[in-house]
Amino acid sequence: MREDTADPPARPRLRPTARMRLPREFSRCLDSGQRMGGAYYRCTVLLDPHAAGPRIGFAISRKVDKRAVVRNRLKRLVREVFRQLRAQLPAGDYVIMGKREAASASPSHLRRDLERLLERARALKPPSAQVTMPPASTPCPGPADLAPGAASSSLPQAGPAPRPGDDRVSE
Questions:
Q1: Distances (CA, A) of 163 to 147, 160, 166, 167
Q2: Which residue of 4, 25, 57, 167 has the fewest C-beta atoms within 10 A of its own C-beta?
Q3: HSE on the CB side for 27, CA within 13 Å?
């Protein structure tokens, strides 16, 4: 082997902190994220403004293609496109799922489809703080707020409300 031949420059790798690995991370994203689809990939995005940056997870099943070589090629392509666009994406989790059509598509079509999906994901708005109940405009009067000597009959009585036509007395 010739010694003056230089190795090609190594491409920057996608750091382990930029990948989703735990099943609970995938479940949280798939359950609560926003879904979008392209011709060859589906993407679920769960934006998190408090996250360190965008993270990616792959879900390319054997339904896409039985051959691991094909599935790995699809994942390599996704990883490369994500690495190139990562700086432009909002912080959060991105799960990319392959469709069956992706197995027979050309790399240029796959790349274009994925770039479109991530461009759409970039336009998403981060979720607002979820409030389960709006604040009460006026507080309800409590027992301490009642005037002294006021009859407590104005308060609803505990127990089930009587049904209409139920005049019988239980013995």
A1: 31, 9, 6, 9
A2: 4
A3: 3
Helical H segments across the chain, by residue range: 23-32, 68-85, 107-122
One-letter identity of residue 2: R
| Rounded CA separation 102/70 (Å) | 9
- pLDDT tens string for the chain (171 positions)? 555 566 666 667 778 888 999 999 999 999 999 999 999 999 999 998 888 889 999 999 999 999 999 999 999 999 999 999 999 999 999 999 999 999 999 999 999 999 999 999 988 887 666 656 666 666 666 556 555 655 555 555 666 666 666 566 655
Instruction: Give the strand pairing for 92-98 and 54-59.
Output: parallel
CA distance 140 to 161: 21
The helix/strand/coil state of 102 is: helix
Instruction: For residue 86, give the nearest of 49, 128, 56, 42 by alpha carbon.
Output: 56
Angle 29-35-37 from CA coordinates, rounded to 5°: 130
